[in-house]
Amino acid sequence: MSSHTSLTPLKVLLFSFYATNTIIVGYLPLYLQYKGLNGTEIGWVLAIGPLASIFSQPFWGYMSDKYKTVKRIIVLCALMLLITGMIFFQMSGLIAILITGAIFFFFISPIEPLSDSIAQRRANEVGVSFGTIRSWGAIGFATSSLLVGELLSHIGIQYMIWPYMFFGLIATVVAFRLKDVKVSSEPIKFKDVSQLVKNMPFMIFLVLIVTLMVTHNTNDNFIGLYIAELGGSERLVGVAWFVGVISEAIVYFLAGFWFRKFHPLIFVIIAGILFTLRWFIYGLVDDPIVIIMLQVLHGLTFGVFFIAAFDYVTRLIPDLLMSTGHLVFFAFMNIAGIIGSLIGGTLFQTFGGQTLYLILGWIALAGTVCITIYHALPYGKETPRGANTSRGVH
């Protein structure tokens, strides 16, 4: 089997899992609204996902490093995706939705970072760019957003469980076909994790990027409700996600042409500037079609940010703790998700979408300034000592 053929199951996993992710990210708020929850309550449910992830992602990352396997953890979590998803979507009432949602997200949240981690390491093994593998996730996300948006506009948001289970089943089946990554033979001990906590550049950077990720996650959670507030339909929500994630896929696919030109923190700062402009513009428009057109900025904001930030933290993490470190990175992104869900839900219900987006613009501006200062200081100015510049996107 050629090295590129061996990547096919991984690409299909990314495509199908991110297709399920579209349905959760893009349509769960509208589904919860259909179930009778208000904006604040929707924010609580959306916060359960990242809250569960804070505990589950480092736990599964540690288990992956301890037992020297990424594949088996993904297979287990994919199987539980089907079981817990079926239960979660049967629930009515806020308390039942919160409890089953916590269990559901505990198992599905590690699949994304572990898939990205295996993609990063497989890319290094076979000598291709991380971005060309990761772009399959974005393509799956975009394809699902368009197809599912069209489907739900015909059959109703209450039936969103069926396309979710369809893509989830594909992800589960193909997970068994994954090629596991090679890991060092040295067994990890729990005390080894303290290396990450003591790694000050790593920890400071994670704290700073929470500011940008708060704005990104808030938009993910509430853009569907904002488009609906402006008079748009489920179909337009799907089109908005399609435009945004296609632009993200293009950024990933072309990463080999732009990514290595500068230090990764330069790209994080550029993404921060564009995040700031994007949210201010969103807050000033009142036509859902304009929001959809501006979704092309998604690739230039989150796409650029994610590749650069993921590469930078990969340089800072010891090889022994690669899965754990990657999942700690995602855990901090989920802290941002909790903040964005809770604050965003309350702001959206109280002041409406336009005010929410103007506030996001100011938060993104503050975060960009802080990251720029970090890059100018000794911690963030130099390439991390011992960094392997061949890692990540080429």
UniProtKB/TrEMBL annotation:
Gene3D superfamilies: MFS general substrate transporter like domains
Keyword tRNA processing: no
Keywords recorded for this protein, A-Z: Cell inner membrane, Cell membrane, Membrane, Transmembrane, Transmembrane helix, Transport
InterPro entries membership: HcaT-like (IPR026032), MFS_assoc_dom (IPR024989), MFS_dom (IPR020846), MFS_trans_sf (IPR036259)
Protein name: MFS transporter
Organism encoding this protein: Tigheibacillus jepli
Keyword Transmembrane helix: yes
Spans traversing the lipid bilayer: 12-30, 42-61, 73-89, 161-178, 199-216, 236-258, 265-285, 291-313, 325-344, 356-377
Subcellular location: Cell inner membrane
